[in-house]
Specification:
alpha+beta, 3 domains, 5-stranded antiparallel β-sheet, 15% strand
């Protein structure tokens, strides 16, 4: 390897003059501590250092684009901000309005999404967290900036968002990797065309964070998805170890000892798994459905009749199974309010959430469903166990959302998913085990400002949790509690 040859060349310098020269030529002053690892346990240096999927997209990129859009980025003397047609957020009124829309989305962001982004117009300079940027810039942004950013800048931004959504996954298909590579290449080329416009006085716009992401697909093919080796886990570990420090004198020595103890305990747990009790045992009153699906309280104390439209949905569901019921047949069911999914999320229901004021809610009743091989989205009314041919079957009564707006979906590189809630017309009964995840569906304010064709009513936009598969690895399960 070239690195090893360069290290050897530096080490074998015959005198200080040659050492200084060779250090300058190679950029190497001494062997790295990682050279001490056995070769069979390391990818080699510098190949063992993959790109950072945390700080680059979650901090460096927003730190470039948001000042550009606000018109606060450094402007050369030979340039003029009056020519910056991309600075759509430059006026205080527009920036404050945009910030309010971000804050207004909070009640619709499920608790499993962790910390929601605060109003950027008020808090972006007050310790805005990487996770907040991630939800704001890569989750809410494509919908909230639609109609605000000029179209070519919005499309360019959406290309980057889509590519990073792919690269933040724990499982990435070859076709997705090719898609992200194409999008990042197009994004960086178009960024220079749209923003720099061949002007030397705008060369400082092109930070390393513009072109570095284009290496991520190749790095993913070489060492695997970046989320596996990202700094999210390390940052959390540092935080957890810091929480264990009770003696503030010799803090770093204490931190080292806590880290050593953690490693020893983890090694024992791997060798003897029974040493560790379940971190999140099922609470009293829950019902294990199998396949890592678990019904959770609250639960009705008696069976109650469903509504007229829900009864129609039940008859339609049973008819699809070959069981026809009379037109006046109304089932009596015992409702459940929550279900834990295999990915660790807890899906809730309208039955209980509707009793809470919106400002105190983190809505978790909107779900992603796999129906007949097709992805759909729905709002859950309640869950139940129903006898089908004498077999207890876990079901959910839901109201489906309609098809997404295909043109906006394509124009946004699949990042802006907006759809109408079908209301009473969309009431259906589904198998609980078709539920894949909990999602955010928030009222789509921007669509209504841009389109007046009658479809703007009851329209919602989608956000899924970034890196959701991390929850399947046990890094983000919701804590289970009893509810009444």
């Amino acid at each position: 390897m070239r690195y090893q040859e360069n290290v050897r060349d530096v080490i074998q310098s015959p005198n200080k003059t040659q050492y200084e020269k060779r250090r300058l030529d190679t950029g190497i002053s001494k062997p790295t501590i990682f050279s001490g690892f056995p070769e069979k346990h390391i990818l080699g240096v510098p190949g063992c250092f993959p790109l950072d999927i945390m700080h680059l997209p979650a901090l460096n990129i927003p730190d470039l684009f948001i000042p550009l859009w606000r018109g606060t980025f450094e402007c050369d003397k030979s340039d003029s901000k009056a020519l910056w047609d991309w600075a759509a957020l430059r006026t205080p009124a527009v920036w404050k309005s945009h910030g309010k829309m971000v804050a207004d989305a909070t009640p619709y962001i499920p608790g499993s999404f962790d910390r929601p982004p605060r109003n950027p117009a008020e808090k972006i300079s007050s310790g805005y967290k990487a996770w907040e940027y991630l939800l704001y810039f890569y989750g809410l942004g494509p919908a909230l900036l639609y109609g605000i950013l000029p179209d070519k800048y919005w499309r360019n931004y959406c290309q980057f968002v889509r590519a990073n959504r792919i690269l933040m996954q724990e499982k990435i298909t070859p076709s997705e990797l090719r898609e992200s590579n194409h999008l990042l290449t197009t994004f960086s080329d178009d960024f220079e065309t749209h923003y720099c416009q061949r002007r030397v006085d705008r060369l400082h716009f092109v930070r390393p964070s513009i072109h570095t992401p284009s290496h991520m697909p190749g790095e993913t093919a070489r060492v695997g998805p970046g989320i596996i080796s990202s700094q999210w886990t390390l940052e959390r570990t540092i935080g957890n170890l810091g929480e264990e420090i009770k003696q503030h004198s010799n803090a770093f020595a204490n931190l080292t000892e806590r880290a050593l103890r953690r490693c020893q305990v983890n090694a024992l747990k791997v060798m003897i798994p029974d040493l560790e009790p379940p971190e999140n045992p099922l609470p009293r009153g829950s019902c294990d459905l199998g396949g890592d699906y678990v019904l959770l309280t609250a639960m009705d104390n008696i069976a109650r009749p469903v509504s007229t439209l829900e009864a129609v949905a039940f008859r339609r569901y049973l008819a699809s199974l070959g069981q026809n019921k009379d037109a006046d047949w109304v089932p009596h069911v015992t409702r459940w309010s929550r279900v834990r999914l295999p990915n660790g999320q807890v899906a809730r229901s309208r039955w209980k959430e509707i009793n809470k004021p919106l400002e105190k809610l983190r809505m978790a009743r909107n779900i992603k469903v796999l129906c007949n091989g097709k992805i759909r989205f729905a709002e859950v009314h309640f869950y139940l166990i129903f006898l089908v041919d004498g077999v207890p079957t876990p079901l959910a009564v839901v109201s489906f959302y309609g098809e997404h707006h295909q043109q906006l979906y394509d124009a946004s590189s699949k990042t802006y998913v907006t759809m109408q809630h079908l209301g009473e017309a969309g009431i259906s009964v589904i198998d609980i085990k078709t539920i894949r995840s909990v999602v955010m569906l928030a009222p789509d304010q921007q669509y209504a400002k841009m389109h007046h064709d009658g479809t703007e009513v009851n329209r919602y936009y989608l956000m899924e949790k970034p890196g959701l598969k991390l929850m399947e690895m046990g890094l983000g399960e919701e804590q289970l509690t009893q509810e009444s």
